Amino acid sequence: MTASPTASTRAPVHPRDLGVGARFSVHPHCDRFVEVILGALAEAREAGLADSLVVETDEVSTYVGSVDDAPEERIVAYVSHVLAAAHRLSGGGHVVGHVLLSRGCPGEAACDLGAVRLPIVAPVRVEPTGVDAVAQWSLYPLLDGGSGGGSHGGDHMVPIEAAIAAARRRGTAVAPAHYATRLRGDVAEVLATATDAWAGVGAEVPHVVTHLTVSIGSPSATGVDTDGAAA
């Protein structure tokens, strides 16, 4: 009879086996939207931020993936640069971005993630863009029953509440919203906040998804936020 491997004896897994990646789309609210979108993607490429990334754009969104070390930091740097560049190229107009980050997706990973040691990811460090953003952020730990939920025993609200608390300490989470938490700050810091939370939960939960709707230069911005937490 063979004992099940513990977290300390399981083999470590490389990011390439976790399917770490993002899908995002950018929507400049201006007549020159094609020029702005293509220009923002080109700027990120010319800055070298697409190096060591797999970038595939189709008619819906752009996929960004990496099989190298520190994929989270590379992806955040690329996506934040594209969003900030789109804002500048549109003349400081209203730009919306939809960003989905996923790790451990069974459709991407070929290994049995229950038999490996999930990596602990260092906080991402990304240069500020100088562009302020507001986002609605949601986090989804995809737990398969109570036995695979790490220290929280399969209760999905435990990692979500811990992530929101960390974002509030960071000063980026500013208010609750229906089905989301409101983040505010430099677009790079907003994305880094969500990424650190997503990767942190991913140290215990094999499959984790997080989603942000990012708004820059919204004409409906009020500048007023209230403290709070959201699920």
From TrEMBL:
Pfam families: Ykof (PF07615)
Domain spans labelled Thiamin/hydroxymethyl pyrimidine-binding YkoF putative: 135-220
Xref: InterPro entries: MTH1187/YkoF-like, Thiamin/HMP-bd_put_YkoF
Highest taxon of the lineage: Bacteria
Protein name: Thiamin/hydroxymethyl pyrimidine-binding YkoF putative domain-containing protein
Organism of this sequence: Nocardioides flavus
